[in-house]
Amino acid sequence: MIEVKNLTKCYGKHLAVDNLSFTVEKGQIYGFLGPNGAGKSTTMNIMTGYLGATKGEVLIDGHDILKEPEEAKQCIGYLPEQPPLYLEMTVMEYLRFAAELKKIPKEDMEIQIEKAMRLTRLSDVRGRLISNLSKGYKQRVGLAQAILGFPEIIILDEPTVGLDPKQIIEIRELIRKLAKEHTVILSSHILAEIREVCDYILIIARGKLVASDTPENLENSMSGTGHIEIEVRREQKEVERVLDRIDQVKRVEYTLLEDGTVRAQIEAKGSGDIRERIFHAFADQKMPLLTLKLNKSTLEEIFLELTQK
């Protein structure tokens, strides 16, 4: 659907995007992550034709965004971080204007505008000036503009920034609806949002791609087996004696809790899951485990680790 090949963008001596390459497949929600200044917005602006690249190319459904801009842009709906709204227009006037810019045929225009307004829940405010709308409704107007023409790819740059929790939930629900018929690329600083909504994650740092996988695979690959946590109501020496007999245990940190329970954080050797081995070792000694769980790295921890290297 989208191929980004060896993309480079320089602003004078500053290298904003550094030989970036990735592919976006059809019918999924992609999360595009990176710290401030990582090159996210620059990359999105190049992908949508707002900026030219210093080197490299972007193919949208086989069309080069610079050499065949009209054909490529017909496949894309774009909502920048600051929605491109004309505040002196009503919602209906603005959407008609956007439809004309997108060259939607006149016989289809009203049908598409009505469909976009229903999807974004704007029908009740169609006659209101955009300047009088709340930030949440302004964001919906920007989304309606992006989906007009119902392109195959919807690109959203920080669509929930500045919204209250209720508005964020509504925008997330809308993104999920869009994903049923469109490929969605979503840039956000809210990692919980990316984890909840996205099928696939791309992480960039200093203009380079540092990770590309599903949220689950990223968590598993970065965590290894993670740390296994157990709690046992026994003397620490007894717990140590049992764990010392397990060959796969690499390192253990012990904590004595207020009620006399011992908590052990266990790091395993290699990549195997040794929880079953630990369970049987304590069961054989008739020492019931109060807790046995695997603590994996969170997406936030993975993001910080990858972007701070």
TrEMBL record:
Q: What are the UniProt keywords, alphabetically? A: ATP-binding, Nucleotide-binding, Transport
Domain (ABC transporter) spans 2-231
Q: Which SUPFAM superfamilies match?
A: P-loop containing nucleoside triphosphate hydrolases
In alphabetical order, the GO MF annotations are: ATP binding; ATP hydrolysis activity
Which PROSITE patterns does the UniProt record give?
ABC_TRANSPORTER_2
List the Gene3D superfamilies hit by this protein, alphabetically.
P-loop containing nucleotide triphosphate hydrolases (3.40.50.300)
Entry keyword Nucleotide-binding = yes
Q: Does the keyword Oxidoreductase apply?
A: no
Q: Which InterPro entries match?
A: AAA+_ATPase, ABC_transporter-like_ATP-bd, P-loop_NTPase
- What Pfam families does this protein map onto? ABC_tran
Q: Which SMART domains match?
A: AAA (SM00382)
- Family, per entry: Belongs to the ABC transporter superfamily.
Q: What's the protein here called?
A: ABC transporter ATP-binding protein
The source organism is Merdimonas faecis
